[in-house]
Design brief:
The chain is an all-alpha fold. The protein is 78% helix and 3% strand.
Length: 336
């Protein structure tokens, strides 16, 4: 009995680390209802494929990391940390006193800020341009793979990734460029209104931008999924994505909750490992192995059943009805 338990445990352990098990499609008799239980089942089965996919998605992050490094790590100069410093310094220079000296010491703390030069702007511009030009292709390749995982189909990360890009080369580029511009504008507007002094109209603008950010965040669950599944124009894709965002609000919120949980796990790991001799190296590297792919899979698992319910199933049912009608006509003509 003990031997059987041991073999069962070791068998499950080897099965978990079996990389090739991801190539098998779901069994025909398996329940494919998009429930929470099946989400964890498929996630465990395809985990190593998701790790491979995440490594292929790193070009989405590398230009951003390089741009951040260029932004903060170039030449720096000490700058006053408060707007009161120039006035206090001038008053203390004209006539020094105990009060002005105390206030100058209190508000005279300085902060090192980056000094931007031509090389900094050129480097950040190159990173932004590279990311913008490849944004759609990288998203379409990863979306095609996670969609096949959700559908229970065999997945071959390398070949499927580039197959999806090749098949959707032009529309993926145009949609990705539009997606990149919208994300940049929404992020810029959000930062702009956040830094403005409070007033009625500025507050209205800020909350309006927040609403647009949330809406577009959910729309992106569906945009690339529809592109890899249907032959639609970009206008129709955006229109359908807006409709599906409303129709699938429950699944969208569940996906958001899943992303929050995944992010919380990464933050918890950061604090746990930061207190060990290993420092923060491991928690900084771990998300580069799975975070983007797992969150993409979570979004696709929530969104694809909505697309299947409202776009694929009606089409299949319509074709079945047409086939049944044609068969009925053939039978009646034969009887006559």
């Amino acid at each position: 009995m003990a031997t059987q338990k041991k073999n069962g445990f070791m068998g499950k352990l080897f099965k978990f680390f079996d990389y090739n098990r991801d190539n098998r499609p779901d069994a025909l008799e398996e329940d494919t209802t998009p429930t929470l239980k099946r989400y964890f089942k498929v996630l465990g089965r395809r985990f190593w494929k998701l790790v491979s996919l995440n490594l292929m998605m790193l070009p989405l992050v590398v230009p951003v990391l390089i741009a951040i490094y260029l932004y903060f790590a170039m030449n720096q100069t000490p700058t006053a940390n408060t707007l009161l410093f120039p006035q206090l310094y001038g008053a203390n220079t004209i006539q020094s006193s105990t009060e002005s000296t105390f206030l100058l010491d209190l508000f005279g703390a300085q902060l090192n800020v980056p000094v931007y030069g031509v090389s900094t702007y050129i480097g950040i511009g190159i990173c932004a341009l590279l990311l913008a030009l490849t944004f759609g292709w990288q998203n379409i390749g990863s979306t095609y793979i996670v969609r096949n995982m959700v559908r229970g189909e065999p997945v071959f990360v390398w070949s499927d990734y580039f197959y999806a890009i090749k098949r959707n080369l032009k529309p993926a580029f145009l949609l990705g460029l539009l997606d990149f511009v919208v994300i940049f504008l929404l992020g810029y507007d959000l930062v702009y209104f956040w830094n403005q002094p409070s007033s009625f109209w500025l507050d209205v603008g800020f909350y309006g931008i927040c609403a647009m950010v949330i809406l577009y965040f959910f729309m992106r669950f569906y945009i690339y999924l529809m592109l890899v599944t249907f032959d639609l124009s970009i206008r129709k894709i955006l229109k359908n994505a807006l409709i599906f965002t409303m129709l699938g609000i429950k699944r969208n919120l569940m996906a958001l909750l899943g992303i929050i949980c995944i992010t919380a796990i990464n933050i918890a790991l950061f604090f746990v490992f930061s207190m060990t001799p290993l420092g923060i190296a491991i928690p900084l590297v771990l998300p580069l192995l799975y975070y983007m792919a797992v969150t993409s899979f979570t979004c696709a698992y929530a969104a694809y059943p909505i697309i299947d319910r409202y776009m694929i199933e009606p089409y299949i049912n319509q074709n079945n009805e047409e086939e049944e009608g044609i068969a009925g006509e053939i039978e009646s003509s034969t009887e006559e």
